[in-house]
Amino acid sequence: MKHPSNDRSGIKIKRRDLLSVAALPVAAALAPRVLSAQEPRRASASARGKIRVGIIGAGGVVGSVHIPGLRKMPNVEIVAVANRSLESSRRAAQEFGIPNAYADWEQLLAAKGIDAVLIGTWPYMHRAVTLAALDSGRHVLCQARMANNTAEARDMLAASQRHPNLVCQLVPSSGTYKIDRALGGLLADKRVGDVLSVEVQMLQRGFASFGGEMDWRHDPEFSGINVLNVGGTYESAMRWLGPGNRVMGMTRVQIPTRRDESGKIRDATIPDHVEVLYELANRAPVHMKFSETTGLSRGNEIWIYGSEGTIRVDNEQNIFVGHRDDKDLAAYPNPHEGQAHHRVEEEFVNAIRGLEPIKMNTFEIGVRYMEWTEAIYRSAESGAAVSLPLGA
């Protein structure tokens, strides 16, 4: 997917693409259960036995997190790997002790003896691999940044619904595991009253790196409309605040060129500075700010202002709470044993065995954050608010 350069707003979404997205059927993706768990499936005889996993894209996070996580699970075996070349696949197979290496993902899916696939590629491949894997009868665990755009994400959701006997899971954003339960509890218990407004900033503390590296996250061919940690932050915020509706966005490309892996200077089109204003269900405004160009900033910070109190989360994810009669905020206890933790592989395997439903994350949640991200681009381009869900 190619996007023309734009110094003010970054990626331009073509009107033809918008119309095609808006015309897609969205009833399933927009059902009231969109944030609920995937229903637990009844385990087949094969699911109760050994689960054999093939890996498509054995990159850094897959090697450091997902492979160890899968190997902790009883009666699970990683049997195959496919990277971008046979040579790369063989290196990964040797490094991780995987018996079978394939030249590409199509060969891996054509092989027998694989029950589930872990997709660790960049977003541009997620749709194609997911649809093919489901059509071949495999369960799917897919890395975050669900797809290149909303249309692809909806295709993935629709495919999962055509195969209700297969488990589909998106790797969740883990950046707020430490605070998710504490914030969710504070807000659910109305400890600060009704939410009146929210401020979220996710800022890098370094200065703009002019002429810096163009990695896959800055390349729309591989990353699509995904930008900075916008989707992951919204995904996390939905855990505490629920989904938003009206969205207004402003984007900037402040580093106009970047150097690709060959050393060639290329125009940058994915924004490096994004500001978003959206509404919650109770019409409370949420302002989010993301940037790679905010030198010496205070980094990441969250403020939740309620009718009876205020919550602040600092750059180290310490939580502070104050109430109407307090003179200042005070540290809020958040013991480690009460915090959420990474259990993606455990949840995936348990869901295949019919022991629990997928909660973190369903494909429905992925469609939500992809729609929100696309709404930011639409608003930045048009200058108007965009309503969610898209096409409703």
Radius of gyration: 21 Å
Structural class of the helices, strands and pairings? alpha/beta
CATH class of the largest domain: Alpha Beta
What is the number of helices? 12
CATH hierarchy: architecture of the largest domain? 2-Layer Sandwich
Tell me the domain tally: 2
In N-to-C order, the SSE pattern is HHEHEHEHEHEHEHEHHEEEEEEEEEHH
Layout of secondary structure:
Blueprint: H1 15-22, H2 45-48, E1 51-56, H3 60-71, E2 76-82, H4 86-96, E3 100-102, H5 105-110, E4 116-119, H6 126-135, E5 139-142, H7 150-162, E6 168-170, H8 177-188, E7 195-203, H9 220-223, H10 230-241, E8 247-252, E9 257-259, E10 265-267, E11 273-279, E12 285-291, E13 301-306, E14 309-313, E15 319-323, E16 330-331, H11 344-352, H12 363-382
Parallel strand pairs: 1-2, 1-4, 2-3, 4-5, 5-6, 7-12
Antiparallel strand pairs: 7-13, 8-11, 9-10, 11-12, 13-14, 14-15, 15-16
Helix pairs in contact: 6-7, 7-12, 8-10, 10-12
Features:
16 strands, disordered N terminus, 2 domains, Dihydrodipicolinate Reductase, domain 2, alpha/beta, 392 residues, 6-stranded parallel beta sheet, 12 helices
Provide a descriptive summary of the structure in words.
With 392 residues, this protein is of the alpha/beta class. Helix content is 31%, strand content 20%. The protein has twelve helices and 16 strands. It has an eight-stranded mixed beta sheet with strand order 8-11-12-7-13-14-15-16. The chain has a six-stranded parallel beta sheet with strand order 3-2-1-4-5-6, with helices on both faces. A hairpin with a 5-residue loop joins strand 11 (273-279) and strand 12 (285-291). Helix 6 packs parallel to helix 7, helix 7 packs antiparallel against helix 12 and helix 8 (177-188) packs parallel to helix 10 (230-241). The longest helix has 20 residues, at 363-382. The protein starts with 14 loop residues before the first helix and ends in a 10-residue tail after the last helix.
